[in-house]
Amino acid sequence: MTIIAQISDLHVQVSGKLVYGVVDTTPLVAEAIAHLSRLKQQPDIVIASGDLVQDGTIAEYELLKTMLAPLQCPVYLMPGNHDHRNHLKQVFASHTYLAKEKSHLSYTVEGYPIQMLMLDSIIPGKGSGCVDPERLTWLEQQLLAAPATPTLIFMHHPPFATGIPWMDRKRCQGHGALANLISQHPQVKRISCGHLHRTIYCPWAGTIASSQPSLVHQSGLDFTPDAPSQFVMEPPAYQLHVWTHENLVSHTLYVGQFDGPYRFSDGKKMMTAAL
Ligand SMILES: [Fe+2]
Ligand SMILES: [Fe+2]
């Protein structure tokens, strides 16, 4: 069994500044990292799927580095639209997978029973994302090289439509060509994305596509056509993707202090500390 923790959309900002004038992300991220560190069974790997920081500054990445330090397992980072590729690489210079000489920061994580492909979907300076021909070619090369290896693709911008108009107006460009490629590679078990700040699943291109909750704030659920983009302070959460050698199963964990656990057999509270 391989356990992959995915944390997303941390939006770390230097101390004292509030994201959008409302959210103090530093304590929220710290609480989530502490929650993850307390898990009885630690993940084999942690993936952070973009919007690691709010403004892409060196100071923010330095703070992020300090905040991630308690994690004992390998941590892999990918950029989101709030990130700055060069500043990320500069501060995380020891993360040599980021140093590859190409125009995007896509890379492969090997050494696990399930292969992980990190597909950089950002357009520098823009909120929207894309999978352009260069990145599509890179992805195709990885998929052709390991046709029998179960594969999990991570990207920041989801390629699927959510049914929420204000989200779908910024749908990842190049999604049609990406769907065509993915549909030819049945080894792809999931495309797991960030950016939407909500837990969403749908069948897509012959596999399952999903988006992650955020560690700091969630997107407001409003299906009306003229609704503006919006966020709500629903509970922060992250996911554990468990590769069972048969299937990829994903579990959502909410960050916070919750009562329990209680035994079903006699209703007694268990001694195990609740997360
Ligand atoms: Fe985000
Ligand atoms: Fe984003």
TrEMBL record:
Q: Which InterPro entries match?
A: Calcineurin-like_PHP, CNP_phosphodiesterase-III, GpdQ/CpdA-like, GpdQ_beta-strand, GpdQ_catalytic, Metallo-depent_PP-like
Does the keyword field hold Metal-binding?
Answer: yes
Which domain of life does the protein's organism represent? Bacteria
Q: Which UniProt keywords apply?
A: Hydrolase, Iron, Metal-binding
Q: Where is the Calcineurin-like phosphoesterase domain?
A: 4-198
UniProt-listed SUPFAM superfamilies: Metallo-dependent phosphatases (SSF56300)
Q: Is Cytoplasm found in the keyword set?
A: no
Q: Which GO terms describe its molecular function?
A: cyclic-nucleotide phosphodiesterase activity; metal ion binding
The protein's matches in PANTHER family, at most eight in alphabetical order, are given as: CYCLIC NUCLEOTIDE PHOSPHODIESTERASE CBUA0032-RELATED, PHOSPHOHYDROLASE
Tell me which family the UniProt entry assigns to this protein.
Belongs to the cyclic nucleotide phosphodiesterase class-III family.
Q: What is the name listed in the Swiss-Prot or TrEMBL entry for this protein? A: Phosphodiesterase
What organism does the record attribute this protein to? Leptothoe spongobia TAU-MAC 1115
Query: According to the entry, what is the taxonomic lineage of the organism?
Result: Bacteria, Bacillati, Cyanobacteriota, Cyanophyceae, Nodosilineales
